[in-house]
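Give me the fold.
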Amino acid sequence: MAGRGGFNAITPEQMRHLLAIRASDVDDEECDEAIMEAVSKIEAEISSKSPYFHDVDKAWDAIHRSLTGDRTPGGVLTPGTGRGPLKYCVLGEEQMIEADHHTVALVKPGTVRKVATALAKIDAAELRKRFFRLDREVITDYTIDDEGFAYTWSNFAGLPAFYSRAAADGRAVLFVADH
């Protein structure tokens, strides 16, 4: 089952720090721990009321699938699925950790601008159309109905503005979810 997820617009320095940890010579488990420690510090600096944070609760799976058409079964998602910049919105350009219990994905500033432009074209009608195209046979955590769409839309609605702010300020976007 998908856990809660949220987006943080991070500074170039914070992005470089995370990338340096990922590129270090430590083993995967140690690397994951160091990244999660850095992510915890970032999340402590960016409050939930900040314009640099956007909470999507458990709707991130439906948002990703609606934007990308990802049909991976069994409650699993595939990064890079889809075409165009929307494929980077949730699962990012770069997966930052290898752990099963967290998803941490990074979108670099240049791509943030492209995602922001693409998201600006997704209104309620467009997201609804995409949501109701989801494959009911691969969805395990929510229903494809009006209630499921209302929940997804309520969590998606501020995401285009969030990405636009991040792009305008030259920030990267870090998506974090627990499982």
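Helices lie at 12-23, 28-45, 60-68, 109-119, 124-131, 146-156, 159-168.
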